[in-house]
Amino acid sequence: MKFPSLSQLKKELAYHSEKELIELIVELSKFSRDNKAYLFFKLHEKDHPGLFLEMAKEELELEFQKANTQHGYYAKKSAQAIRRKMNKLLKLNKKKEDQAELILFFCERLKANGYLAHRHPVIQNLYEIQIRKAEKLISGLHEDLQYDFQEKMRELE
């Protein structure tokens, strides 16, 4: 089965009424939590610009609190699970500064919660990869924002 391209879908959507489009969006939001979350953030981002960051940080903090860090193996598994959760959240927002801030928050929490103390190579690699991702995102931002983020980066290193 071959699916149509995005441009074909756009053309097809242009022929539908507003009511039909609303019904279609509601059906899409029922399919997955990701769709529902994306729709929620898109509808509320103009009224509450920091809403995504607040909710994402709160959700990640809960995951860090639930995580088992007693043994290196469990710490590794927990860190990987939290990173997967963060990557899902990053897909919901396309603003580079929010993405960089969330990645830096993740790295700060890894460091603060003692994940790096296990000296597990997977955790070390995960941390370094996230730092490089943040550096790449920061390099594309405005100079003033770059300076602020680079201060945070220095604290992490």
Please explain how this structure is put together.
The structure is a single chain. With 157 residues, the protein is mainly α. It has 8 helices and no strands. The chain has helices at residues 6-14, 18-31, 33-44, 51-66, 72-90, 96-112, 121-139, 143-156. Helix 4 (51-66) runs parallel beside helix 6 (96-112). The relative contact order is 0.09. The model has no long low-confidence stretch (mean pLDDT 92).
Layout: helices, strands, pairs:
Layout: H1 6-14, H2 18-31, H3 33-44, H4 51-66, H5 72-90, H6 96-112, H7 121-139, H8 143-156
Keywords:
single chain, 157 residues, mainly alpha, 8 helices
What string gives the helices and strands in order? HHHHHHHH
Helix-and-strand structural type? mainly alpha
What composes the largest sheet? none
Number of helices: 8
Question: What is the strand content?
Answer: under 5%
**Radius of gyration over alpha carbons?**
19 Å
Shape from CA axes? Answer: globular
Distance between the termini: 49 Å
| Unreliable stretches covering 5 or more consecutive residues | none
Mean pLDDT: 92
What is the percent of helical residues?
over 70%
Assembly of the depicted chains: single chain
Strand segment tally = 0
Quick overview of this protein structure:
With 157 residues, the chain is mainly α.
